[in-house]
Write a structure and sequence with these properties.
Strand 2 and strand 3 form a beta hairpin. This protein has one helix and eight strands; from the N terminus they run E-E-E-E-E-H-E-E-E. By secondary structure, it is mainly β. The protein starts with a strand and ends in a 12-residue tail after the last strand.
Length: 113
């Protein structure tokens, strides 16, 4: 497995409703926390989207409550991207380590001269 540190300021865009899934081997229903949607400006000026399950805040050092987020709020998210070996049969995933309030980032002028 390859682990890559990730640290980015994100703008909160909203949340998707709670959901559920079924445990494949038991057929039991498992309730899932809401998915929080964030966006950020990439290095080349495009918009990147990040979805983070609200329950990730519970497992991180969160200096804010996800329920208090309002559209347009900025947060700094630090974590680790865990990349599994190709062909391993395992899913890659993102581990959130820290979530904290952040000021709005300075916008780039990529592609403009």
């Amino acid at each position: 497995m390859q682990r890559l540190p990730w640290d980015r300021v994100l703008e909160y865009r909203g949340r998707e409703a709670e959901g559920y899934s079924f445990v494949s081997d038991k057929g039991e229903r498992v309730d899932l926390a809401p998915m929080l949607r964030f966006e950020f400006e990439t290095d080349d000026g495009d918009v990147g989207l990040v979805d983070i399950r609200a329950s990730a805040f519970d497992n991180a050092r969160a200096l804010l409550e996800w329920q208090d987020l309002k559209r347009g709020d900025y947060v700094r998210v630090q974590g680790v991207i865990n990349l599994q070996e190709r062909g391993s049969g395992k899913d890659s995933y993102f581990s959130v380590k820290v979530v904290e309030p952040a000021p709005a980032p300075v916008r780039t002028t990529a592609g403009k001269s």
